Amino acid sequence: MVRLAAIPALRWGPWLTAAGVVALVIWSYHGTRVDVATLLSGEALGQIAAYVSKLFPPDLSPRTLRDALDGAVETFAISLIGSVLSVCVAFPLALTATRTILYRGILYEGQRLGPGDRAVRLAVYAVAKSVLAVLRTVPEIVWALIFVFIVGLGPFPGVLALGVHTGGVLGKLFGDVLEDVDPRPLEALQSTGASRLGIVLYGILPQALPQFASYALYRWEVNIRAAAIMGFVGAGGLGQRIHFAISLFHEQQLLTLILAVYLMVTLVDALSAWLRARLV
Amino acid sequence: MAGPVGRYPDSTGRRAFRYLLIAAVAVTFVLSLRTAQVDPRLLLDPQALSNVARFVSGALPPRVDREFLAFLVRPIAETVQISVMGMVLAVLIGAPLGLLATSSLTWRGILHERATRAGRVLGGLLPYGLARALLSVFRSIPEYVWAFMFVRAVGLGPFPGVLALGVAYGGMLGKVYSEILEGVNPRPLEALHAAGAGKSGVVLYGLVPEALPHVVSYTLYRWECAIRASAIMGFVGAGGLGQQIELSMRMFQFDEVLTLLAVLLALVGAVDFVSGRVRAKVVG
To answer: Which CATH class name applies to A61-279?
Structure first.
């Protein structure tokens, strides 16, 4: 901020930004009908406290624990298979959505492409890019709704939803990695007369794969959270059981299920961090 | 592959460990395939294909008549408002907890060189541990679960959405704030300390100026995520575009769903653009 103020031409920038932020907050404050006075005067706090007290103690009967365990295992499975599927979706799309692989850069310095060939490759690139954009912009829960409509209830639509949405996210990240690889090994390969495929296989991919693995593991951590809520629209796992527990006012079971979500998320975070330390 | 190698000096042990790891991953994968009831044939089932056809033909063309678009203004505004107020609340929750959860502020490092052992544990370690635990609970429960519970506690509308975002994102912000603060270069702090600055002086003139750009940048990045989250929190009745997407989906009005998704795309794009511009200025 200090640096900005030192540039005379931008003197008004910070103030305008600040004013914009304040206006945005005021507008939002009124729009969301947040009433700090009521909140602090106790009515809302009382409601929240009353609700929280109903959550305790958690229901630890064998039946509920069994149900929570089943849900947790299902959530884990959805997140894992969904993440694997997302890599399968992302990998081919990322390769076709990378300019330096498809039509320009070191790979094409030696032999230029004909105009027709180049146009086809540009079109492939544009299509892959827009597919990725659509996949990742539609939230996973909307994908889940759509897949529940197509293949019916159960964990499978959850897997598909995670695979498709995360496939879009990973595809973009993978593409960025592919475009950013160190060009020097590629030049070395090219000077030894390696083909384009050879450069991709032995120059680009070996540099990119550790990053791919790291991103995939990171998205797995995101996916375990997503898998835990997917059930809200009928796609299995803990979310479905949480939905029932909330809808049927079984607050003590709800707390058990939330504890299961917490344990599951913590477990996957630790597992992913451990694997990442070994892989990358 | 570099890090852990040293821990297994004999290569047979290392190899055995690696095979064991691969086997464990493979078994977990196969078991998960069964648990998740993965069945690709379902996708090629005539019923599924006709559902796809029904969805696509229902969605095209998207509904863009004036009445529907005018109706959308309110949910769009609400989505933005929930995200903004949610972030304000998240900062209010995340900043104090994040400060407490910073080890260099509460019990470790140059600020506490002269503190006694008991003083460190009671005055520092205890609030530090509590803040960490609280942040961990806040961020580990997904915002939709928070939203659902707040809907139960305070009723339908945008307010439970704000509370849910505030709590869940407060947990994330607090953790990242503390990481940023712990990552600050300690030398200027030591210099201030040596020059006779008190604790608050070190924090205000050493820590804050170094950390602030990163804090602002990360908060803006989180706002980009918050707009997505607030758009779908409506699925559990917490207002915004999500509520409308859910309704249209349940009523099989796929042409409305398509319009809503396009609106969401534009909204997310706009927020990414604004936030990206501001971030580039703050950090750049």
So the answer is: mainly alpha
